[in-house]
Amino acid sequence: MPTTILRCPFSSCRSRIIKTDDENTNIKTVTGNGGPRLLHFSDGEVSLNSSTKNLKFYQVNDMWTFDNIGVSRPTSMDDEFSITIDNGSVPVHIERYLTCADCDKGPLGIAGSVNREALEDPSGSKLVYYLYTDSVFQEVPPTSIDT
Ligand SMILES: [Zn+2]
What we know:
Pfam family, one: Mss4
Number of helices: 0
GO cellular component, one term: membrane
Keywords: Guanine-nucleotide releasing factor, Protein transport, Transport
Protein name: BA75_04284T0
Largest sheet: 6 strands, antiparallel, barrel
Structural class: mainly beta
CATH topology: Metal Binding Protein, Guanine Nucleotide Exchange Factor, Chain A
Helix content: under 10%
CATH architecture: Beta Complex
Order of helices and strands: EEEEEEEEEEEE
Shape: globular
Low-confidence stretches: none
Mean pLDDT: 90
Bound molecules: zinc ion
InterPro entries: Mss4, Mss4-like_sf, Mss4/transl-control_tumour
């Protein structure tokens, strides 16, 4: 995963949410299905996504991996959400929606409880975080010239 700084999609905010790179083994990309409509950032505009099928998420195993993240209560406890691992579907029980820690807008994703053994990571906190890849503004920093 290249080094990318993910930020709040709203140009008036752009709060830093998380940095992804190869060294950050707490983050990987997974496919998710279901859940609420999430913020969708495209061409500088923020809207709600039109589909909840086969979306890409950053799966974050620990809240402390984030630079800044907010959580809110879900509007519906009945929404079903699942992720796909090795062609199998793993249910995620939605506990929270992810929001921007600074402007409170969202949802940018989901926090939920998952069978940790299905993730092959029985350690870590109770909740697993799913940040929708299209919810965020992706800033690719210029390549550093460190040697
Ligand atoms: Zn924000």
